[in-house]
Write a structure and sequence with these properties.
2 strands, 153 residues, mainly alpha, flat, two-stranded antiparallel ribbon
């Protein structure tokens, strides 16, 4: 028995959708949307922004691959593979953050990395470098979702 073959067999079955869950994503999305709407109508935050699932999903679908991870080590590929289930949960998270006016400290943290502008130039000259900030992929999706709403409204 080869352990590699066992892992391959097991993990190829893990992510597959079962036949009894047809329409489950749409049903859950409908439930979450109605729950958020009901909660918004009950509370005094009725004019609060709701980060909709389709907006988060759209931002996740437009992610570029092979980009560096932030300090949380979450790559864009993780978000893409998470699919619609992850989009629902991120929508709930982002909506809760808006309603409670709270952004986790880890979302406000970035790692600044120096990048050489010209590999043929003088590497000892600081002017030959530009800085890039590596931020968590999830906080970037939150920021992009808000930008979309700010442009629309």
């Amino acid at each position: 028995m080869n352990i590699l073959d066992e892992f391959i067999t097991y993990y190829t079955k893990v992510g597959q959708t079962k036949t009894n869950s047809v329409g489950a994503d749409n049903k859950f999305k409908s439930f979450v949307t109605s729950f958020i709407q009901a909660e918004t109508n009950i509370n005094s935050h009725s004019n609060a922004l709701i980060v909709e699932v389709h907006v988060v999903q759209e931002k996740m679908n437009n992610l570029k691959l092979c980009k560096a991870a932030g300090h949380d080590n979450i790559l864009n590929e993780h978000l893409i593979i998470g699919g619609s289930s992850l989009a629902v949960h991120l929508s709930l998270l982002f909506t809760a953050m808006v309603r409670h006016a709270f952004v986790p400290e880890s979302f406000r943290f970035g790692i600044i990395k120096p990048i050489l502008k010209n590999k043929h130039g003088d590497q000892t000259n600081l002017d030959m470098y530009r800085g890039i900030t590596l931020t968590p992929a999830i906080s970037s999706r939150l920021r992009q979702s808000f930008y979309l709403y700010m442009v629309v409204t």
